[in-house]
Write a structure and sequence with these properties.
The chain is mainly alpha-helical and 472 residues long. It is 64% helix and 0% strand.
Length: 472
């Protein structure tokens, strides 16, 4: 027991030290993170907090233009880049003129200020979750510190979910803390801090992944079935599955309000990976809970699509027209898809050249592949699904302006965040009866992070998990 308590304290101290170090680094850039879309979310949030549409637009313009004067010129590829040549006064004048123009041309409704035509602003009207999240921060601290603190909370929450996900998958404490640190150090942390909906969507995505790990862990059998497991253990396992299902459903439901397109793609990717996985396990007559997870994610994907359609939110056709008509400022194309796929080829060719010139992501993906080959873990197919969701999201927006930002493709970075820490643990090689109270590295079960159920052995997969009394 003292060892377990000591492990709990070390885990908490390590988690807090990483969080404090990250927060301290972010104090060097309290402002300067705004992108052209920040003013849209900010004006929406200020309208929700009680400001008039006109006043919300004015304050959003003031913040956006002031932030632009502090934007980073860093050569690091995933940081913001300053638009050189426009003063703060010129920026304010330009945006005020734009608001006046679009107000005269019919954009007189909605929560966001009329920075563009009503059809384009409808994209942001369909993302109420992030502005709603910002309201208490803006009310107490104002735009500058409010947006900074909201970003910090989002980034730290996502990093802690990564830590919990890895611990729930049965990895050691050092590997879990490494995952938390990677999440904050890689573009996932930068995107989370930016005042855009992508960071909150990413954090909710980590909640979904944590739920998937809990959902896929093998359910302990009862005394009647095995003669060994206690009723308490069985109930704990069932509670873990219920908790996982709730996290998956609630995470995707909240993502629907924040960025429904990313929620849809994540649900589809998870359902597809789980379905393929269950097919392989079915050949061994051990489908386990994977098929149920596939059904849950598939049903949620259908619900997300139906909800967006019923609410009249912009769909795939609208996104293609937005790209090809420069935010609907030119007439729609009768059939946008041929030109859209041309843009796909142009974007991905440029993207591959970018990766060859600065192979940070390819190197990390290679390390992730090594982890995938070296050690089986329930977290790996889930991480693969998250990476696929990032690729699909970027494929839906093949905009060369996003080549440097890593904003739309950010879910891809969850693959190295979740996979590389597994390399810190030795793969299990023993053939002795498995002790359910110890993790694969030989330490006690991570009761500090996942006390509701014993961790699954990292060398096993759902449907193939060994019972504590069985032999390897």
């Amino acid at each position: 027991m003292p060892n377990i308590r000591r492990k709990q304290h070390l885990g908490l101290i390590g988690m807090l030290l990483i969080a404090v170090a990250f927060a301290g680094l972010q104090l060097t850039a309290v402002t300067g993170r705004a992108s052209p879309d920040t003013k849209n979310y900010l004006s929406y949030a200020l309208s929700l907090s009680g400001e008039s549409r006109q006043e919300a637009g004015r304050r959003a313009i003031t913040y956006s233009c002031a932030s632009g004067q502090h934007a980073s010129l860093s050569p690091v590829p995933w940081t913001n880049r300053k638009a050189v040549g426009e003063s703060e006064e010129q920026c304010v004048r330009r945006l005020n003129d734009s608001v006046a123009y679009w107000t005269r041309h019919g954009n007189t409704e909605g929560m966001t200020a009329p920075f563009a035509n009503q059809r384009f602003m409808a994209i942001f009207e369909a993302r109420p979750g992030y502005p709603l999240f910002l309201v208490p921060f803006l009310t107490v601290l104002g735009p500058t510190w409010g947006l900074w603190l909201a970003g910090l909370v989002i980034a730290l929450a996502g990093s802690v979910c990564v830590l919990f996900t890895l611990r729930a998958a049965g990895v050691s404490l050092r590997a879990g803390l490494a995952g938390q640190a990677l999440y904050l150090a890689l573009p996932t942390g930068t995107v989370a801090m930016n005042p855009l909906s992508d960071g909150l969507s990413l954090a909710l995505g980590t909640v979904v992944l944590l739920g998937c790990v809990l959902l896929l862990r093998d359910r302990p059998r009862t005394d009647v079935e095995s003669g060994t497991s206690t009723g308490t253990t069985a109930r704990a396992g069932a509670a873990g599955h219920r908790t996982g299902a709730v996290l998956v459903a609630c995470g995707l439901a909240l993502m629907f309000l924040v960025r429904y397109s990313q929620a849809l793609l994540l649900a589809v990717a998870l359902a597809a990976v789980f379905l393929a996985w269950s097919g392989r396990l079915r050949l061994k007559r051990q489908p386990g809970p994977v098929l149920r997870a596939a059904g849950l994610c598939g049903a949620l994907a259908a619900g997300i699509y139906a909800g967006a359609h019923l609410l009249g939110w912009p769909m795939g056709q609208d996104s293609a027209q937005d790209l090809l008509t420069h935010h609907y400022q030119r007439p729609d194309l009768p059939n946008p898809w041929p030109e859209f796929f041309v843009q796909e080829g142009v974007f991905w060719s440029a993207w591959l050249r970018r990766q060859a010139a600065q192979p940070i992501l390819p190197v990390l993906l290679a390390l992730s592949a090594w982890a995938l080959l070296r050690r089986a873990s329930v977290v790996l197919p889930i991480a693969l699904a998250a990476g696929a969701a990032g690729l699909l999201n970027q494929a839906g927006h093949p905009n060369l302006g996003q080549l440097y930002g890593y904003r739309l493709i950010v879910f891809v970075w969850l693959l190295p965040v979740l996979a590389i820490p597994l390399l810190l643990d030795r793969p299990p090689t023993d053939t002795a009866p498995h002790d359910a109270t110890r993790d694969p590295a030989g330490a006690e079960a991570p009761s500090d992070m996942t006390a509701h159920a014993a961790p699954a052995p990292a060398g096993d997969t759902p449907g193939e998990l060994r019972h504590p009394t069985s032999r390897s």
